[in-house]
Amino acid sequence: MTQSIKKPSTNPHPDPELLAAAKAAFERAYAPYSHFKVGAALRCTDGQVFAGANVENASYGLGRCAEQSAIQAMASAGERGFTELVVYADAPTPATPCGACRQVLFEFSPAAQVFCVNAQGQVLSHAVADFLPHAFQL
Ligand code: THU
């Protein structure tokens, strides 16, 4: 399906409620192997907020990224689109979604704005489609 891609928002500031939800999810992350906790929170098209954290596993490849946890929560609740996503981690520079997460985000909302925020308050922001040029589409 071909999806229309709107211009990204130019607002450099994440929604404070989403940032708080991403920080709360960060605190709940299960990352005993990497010790790198990540929280993500998104706002659905209808205003609902869903959050997720990374959840690792002793079988390393089964670990789940925070962004995918948030998308799973959203989609499992029956929602199919989001307008904004905040990714929060305590890193020297804002942690950006991995390649796999970019494709998962693109599935639902290529025009959504992603705000990557670190503990120092640095922000890196792009639209999902700008994070993943030439995304796979059916
Ligand atoms: N991680 C995320 O949760 N999101 C990303 O986009 C990048 C990486 C997690 C996976 C793993 O649990 C830890 O960060 C270290 O890679």
Describe this structure as you would to a colleague:
The protein is α+β, with helices and mostly antiparallel strands and 138 residues long. The protein has 4 helices and 5 strands, in the order αββαβαββα. Strands 2-1-3-4-5 form a 5-stranded mixed β-sheet. The radius of gyration is 14 Å and the shape is globular. Mean pLDDT is 93; it is low at 1-10. The chain binds tetrahydrodeoxyuridine. Tetrahydrodeoxyuridine (THU) binds next to helix 2.
Widest β-sheet, arrangement of strands: 2-1-3-4-5
| Major beta-sheet overview | 5 strands, mixed
Q: What Rg, in angstroms, do the CA atoms define? A: 14 Å
N- to C-terminal separation?
6 Å
- What is the H/E order? HEEHEHEEH
What is the general shape?
globular
Rounded mean pLDDT is: 93
Low-pLDDT runs: 1-10
Strands, total number? 5
The set of bound ligands, ions and cofactors reads: tetrahydrodeoxyuridine
- By DSSP (H or I, 4+ residues per run), the number of helices equals 4
Q: Beta-sheet strand percentage?
A: 15-25%
**Helical content (DSSP H or I, runs of 4+):** 25-40%
Structural class: alpha+beta
Keywords:
5-stranded mixed sheet; alpha+beta; 4 helices; binds tetrahydrodeoxyuridine; disordered N terminus; 138 residues
Briefly summarize what is shown.
This protein has helices at residues 16-28, 66-76, 99-108, 128-131, and strands at residues 38-44, 49-53, 82-89, 113-118, 123-127.
